[in-house]
Amino acid sequence: MNPNAHSHSTLLQVKGLTKRYGGIRVFDNVDLTIHAGEIFGVIGPNGAGKTTLINVLSGAVPPSAGTIHLTGLDVTGVPLHAMSRLGAIRSFQQTNTFHGKTVRENLVYAMQFGGRHRGDVKGVQALLDAFDLGARMNEPADKLPYGSQKLLGLLMAFVTEPQLLLLDEPAAGLEHHERDRIDRFVHAACRELGSAVLIVEHDIGLIRRLCSRIVMLDGGRILAEGTPDEVLSRPDVLSAYVGEADEEHAC
């Protein structure tokens, strides 16, 4: 099955989504539609509002305005723990494991948090082995190398069997040779679980490989939407990235 050969049924519908902190607008009037089984990318310069978008979609923080519908259900403002039970699960830019607990215990706790109680999640053993974690199930998670902790965090999201997987810079902090594991993980989520995946990522090569559609956020607004080739060939998109690179170089 091609992971990008997604169903046309709408899984996530976002209308007019806005988040402000006091007088600071993080993003404004964002509209998104994600289909069941789709791999959807969100790109943009630093400070564009990408991580905050994931925070709002996952229920970590409420929106200031707008609506969120998941499988037709209005979930606007539903908190994180309840969203996880409804099948919307997020990952984090940094490692986010239960320190002092083993790899196995981390996976069990994640399943319980997501309301799953059976231990035979399809495809998880193959991923554990591919990520070199299968033989380390009884080791403390906080003793693993950073890259392994990051991959364990992704597997903790996987074992909840999400309908919607929200990945916040999954390749951040990984060595170059580890990044193909993100491809394998995303394909497995789509193939084995039928998940839709929203990816926030700066690795444009990964976005091109995985995503059927992307949006570009800039200054809290959607600047462009389409296929990766369509969006990344636009002069205004390139200008936004070049401008960010120039600012970083000046610093």
What is the gist of this entry?
The protein is an alpha/beta fold.
Primary descriptors:
single chain, 251 residues, alpha/beta, Rossmann fold, six-stranded mixed β-sheet, four-stranded antiparallel β-sheet, 10 strands
Characterise the protein shown here.
About 35% of the residues lie in helices and about 25% in strands. It has a 6-stranded mixed β-sheet, with helices on both faces. The termini are far apart. It has about 250 residues and is α/β, with parallel strands linked by helices. It contains 9 helices and 10 strands. The chain has a domain at about 10-95 and about 160-185 and about 195-250: 3-Layer(aba) Sandwich (Rossmann fold), CATH 3.40.50.300.
Question: Largest sheet at a glance?
Answer: 6 strands, mixed
Distance between the termini: 46 Å
Q: Uncertain spans, ≥5 residues at pLDDT below 50?
A: 245-251
Widest beta sheet: strand line-up: 6-7-8-3-9-10
Q: In percent, how much strand structure appears in the residues?
A: 15-25%
| Text of the CATH class of the domain at 10-95 and 162-186 and 193-250 | Alpha Beta
Secondary structural class: alpha/beta
> What would the CATH topology of the domain at 10-95 and 162-186 and 193-250 be?
Rossmann fold
- Mean pLDDT rating: 88
CATH 4th-level superfamily of the domain at 10-95 and 162-186 and 193-250: P-loop containing nucleotide triphosphate hydrolases
Report the strand count: 10
By DSSP (H or I, 4+ residues per run), the number of helices equals 9
Backbone shape: globular
